[in-house]
Amino acid sequence: MVPPELDEGLSIERVKDFSLEELLGMAIKAEIGARKFYESLADRIEIETLKEKIEWLAGEEGKHEALLRKMYTSMFPGKEVVYPAEHIGPELKPVARELQGVQDIVDLIRWAMRAEEIAAHFYEEIEKMVDSEDRKRLMRYLSDMEKGHYYTLRAEYELLLDWEMYSQMMHVGP
User: Fold this and answer.
1) Cα Rg, the chain, nearest whole Å
2) Is the pLDDT higher at 17 or at 137?
3) Average pLDDT, integer, range 72-93
4) Checking CA distances to 18, which of 42, 110, 139, 159 falls within 20 to 30 Å?
5) Are the C-beta atoms of 17 and 122 separated by less than 8 Å?
6) pLDDT per residue over 8-62, tens digit each?
């Protein structure tokens, strides 16, 4: 089941159907959505160690947005960012419901992992389209960061699947 916080969007194969300007707009919009999703998820999590990791992810997504905006401005000077209605892959939306327990968190983290995987691949595809080595490096950097987010979430996901182990770790400390 797809939670209401996730809109699956277009397949990654559709990247070539859009201009670089549109793709950067989609990327900026996705980073904004991911940041808002993580902020809203953190507000609903009572497990302090998990809450801190989710808040860190929100901050990282904000940094990605700033990098992409800078790139957009340098590539399209004087233009406002265009946010196409379409988006590639899962787009995370703020969590608007109260979480009923660990299973809700597990589901949301699973979908966030999928969104991070697709974001990493999305940046790999944009890397093929940009012209300068600096821009290619930025896209590789963003792709690698999204992969790192995936693994951060995956570690928490696996701990949550074994709730007893996670709750014991909360009492032991970092």
Assistant:
1) 17
2) 137
3) 87
4) 110
5) no
6) 777 777 878 888 899 899 899 999 999 999 999 999 888 888 899 999 999 999 9
- Is 7:64 a contact under the CB 8 Å cutoff? no
Cβ neighbours for 80, distance < 8 A, ≥ 6 positions apart: none
Q: What burial class does residue 174 get, using C-beta atoms within 10 Å of its C-beta: 0-12 exposed, 13-18 middle, 19+ buried?
A: exposed
Rounded distance between C-alpha atoms, residue 149 and residue 152, angstroms: 5
Contacts of 110 (CB under 8 A, 6+ apart): 157
Cβ neighbours, 10 Å, residue 44: 16
Q: How many residues does the chain have?
A: 174
**Rounded to 5 degrees, what are φ and ψ at 34?**
-65, -45
Two structure tokens written together for 40 = 């809203």
pLDDT of residue 174: 44
- Alpha-carbon distance of 23 to 125, in angstroms, equals 10
Backbone angles phi, psi at 52, to 5 degrees: -65, -40
Rounded Cα distance between 143 and 134, Å, is 14
Per the structure block, which two tokens stand in for 160? 């949550």
